[in-house]
Amino acid sequence: MTDTVTDWVAFHALTTPEKLATVDLASGRKHSYAEMNDRVSRIAGFLREAGIEPGDRVGLIAMNSSDVLDIIFATWRIGAVHLALNFRLTAQELAFIVDDASPKLVISDVAFAAMVGDLRSQTSGVRWVETDGLGGETEFENALKGSSRIGEIEALGMEEQAMLMYSSGTTGRPKGIIITHGMMLAAVLNEAINFEANRNSVSYAVLPLFHIGAMMGFSVPVLFFGGTAVIERVFEPGAMLEAITCEEFGVTHFLGLPAVYNALSQHPDCKDADFSRIIIAAGGAEPMPEPLLRWWFDHGVPIVEVYGMTETCGLACSLLREDVPGRIGSAGKAAMFIDMKIMKSETQEAAAGEQGEIWMKGANVTPGYWQRPEADEQSFVAGWLKSGDIGRKDEDGYIYVDDRIKDMYISGGENVYPAEVENILYMMPQISEVAVIGVADPKWGEVGCAVVVPADNQSLDLETIKRHCDEHLAKYKHPQSLDIRTELPRNATGKVLKFILRDELG
């Protein structure tokens, strides 16, 4: 790999200027690489005129649009750092992040004007610029009309910072995760190998682009290869099925969460949708229930499960297309530019098949956390990142992710991994969504509570769940209580917020 950063958009604007780069479904805008490069040049000029220097952070709070990609590449062109801000956080939560990251400028979507107003009152030293993500008459678009153009990228080394993304903060104070240009390059090359990506690839993004999963699965990588990124503003299963079926778009790659695949499978249009052009349908962010994976395989879509973190710039390991269905249940083998091992302790590696913590090291692993040396000390051992996830590696090198360490509970002296129990419960046709947590019990210390969203027109009781578990799980793993809900609490990336359930159910 090269030691200096290349401007991907400028390269493709030179070599394939008429090739379609982005499609913004909400506004109907379509930009060739020549048009995208011109827009990136003008945004870069505006940022420079706004006083942004190499190394400065440029924040973005915005709904999905092709503008997100334009702003990212413009930020990189002047050597600055993209600060991805989660619009689903409260003003108070975002105020901590903005104070910690200290951006000089934040571009914010008018859709969040009320929240941003509260945020601005809690922060200082930041210039705020409003946009709508649709190309409308806004402060941002008006500024671009008169801005100069910057066509050449700042001289940057691969070790320099490209992005700053904050952890979800589900267990405490969010940490800023440093993502370098070298990490980005290693990550897209990993995807080229594992996900068969090339200049003919067309990605479809529906998950929020402030999240590493949505960004790297696959909107940013296709722009490295010279493909096309199709951007959806919000998730609606019917619209997603229509976009995937659309021959004009020719979508080949997309990433979904279990909740997304579940919603698609239950939509009436799913049976008539055309998935024939799909090369990679990836599943990530949380373990995919095996029954859901098998349902999609039986309906002609082999979902490749992916495991990774923001700290690994997305992909750490994944299945390949040819691994499905034989290896369903595994997250695949480590990608080319990363090593993965399972550790029983901080000094002892687990044998094949033994459980332990997943550790990772490689070119796409973060060098550390933003201004948090204590977090670096807790999370790294001799350059290896401790994931906080429990997993196994079999004799063939396939990784199995069992659960988060923090979600495990101990019942009668036995470790219980909720993901294992959830996988069994997802086999039940009465269940649409489920999360299992450990709750206090005077006899066993902790026992399982199943928090369930029933399928449409289905009823469910605890005894039915226990009878189902009899065949599949040891008694100590059986849920001992049941909580019925209309929805599960989730963060912006779709992960179930189990700490909320633990707080509510005790």
Strand runs, count:
25
**What is the overall number of helices?**
15
Structural class: alpha/beta
Low-confidence stretches: none
CATH superfamily of the largest domain: ANL, N-terminal domain
| Fraction of helical residues | 25-40%
- Quick one: overall form? globular
Order of adjacent strands in the largest pleated sheet: 2-1-10-9-11-12-13-14-15
Number of domains as seen in the coordinates: 2
Oligomer: single chain
Q: At the first level of CATH, what is the class of the largest domain?
A: Alpha Beta
Q: Radius of gyration, Cα only, in angstroms? A: 23 Å
In the CATH hierarchy, the architecture of the largest domain is: 3-Layer(aba) Sandwich
| Strand percentage | 25-35%
Q: What is the distance, rounded to the nearest whole angstrom, between the alpha carbons of the first and last residues?
A: 51 Å
**Main sheet overview:** 9 strands, mixed
CATH topology name of the largest domain: Rossmann fold
